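Hello again,

I reread your note about wanting to compare the complex against the isolated chains. To keep things tidy I'm splitting this into two emails, and this first one only covers the full assembly. Below are the input lines as submitted, including protein chains and any nucleic acid or small-molecule components. They are followed by the predicted structure of everything together. The single-chain runs will come separately.
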Amino acid sequence: QFVLTQPPSVSGAPGQRVTISCTGSSSNIGAGYDVHWYQQLPGTAPKLLIYGHNRPSGVPDRFSGSKSDTSASLAITGLQAEDEADYYCQSYDSSLSGYVVFGGGTKLTVL
Amino acid sequence: QVQLQESGPGLVKPSETLSLTCTVSGGSISSYYWTWIRQPPGKGLEWIGYIYYSGSTNYNPPLKSRVTISVDTSKNQFSLKLSSVTAADTAVYYCARQVVVRGVYYMDVWGKGTTVTVSS
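Full-complex prediction:
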């Protein structure tokens, strides 16, 4: 259903490092389009977390993004309780007339 | 600091047209792209489409036949119309500013969202 594939859930203990994967194809991530990440806290709108390899002002450097071939990853180090949220990856797909695509989202639980 | 606010009816009848407006404050609508995204209850995000301030548009292929996005630069607003709605169109609808630069596409400013329910 979603062009980009994410694991439904990940978990980690406070202080640990977790990664969230985002798998695409040759028409999106594999075509060279950047991957961006959003954090959605419960009951709120999504917030831009990572764009490409960059962080908007105010986002801690505990969050980082990487990309390789047809996939990307979001890494969170020094996990904190406040990081518990849904995370979405997003890119662009060049098929058809070109369009913005999202992953299905990953629920991060801080144990 | 740019802020976005969605407005429109919270309840729409099946087969009718959903209409929402996004008002941009704290900055000009000009020289940017503006987008609509929705999130059905308990589900993920779905991109609907974007518009450039000059009026050019790009829509999500599965929704393209039912979607119209327009812009009113004099009011610093852009709007969404989704026709022939069904219960599957029930969702929180977000407006956002879309960055489009040299093949890079992402949303950097989001509205708080508005809930639209399709029901008779």
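For quick reference: The interface with chain B takes residues 2, 32-34, 36, 38, 44-48, 51-52, 56, 88, 90-92, 96-105 of chain A (CB under 8 Å).

B.
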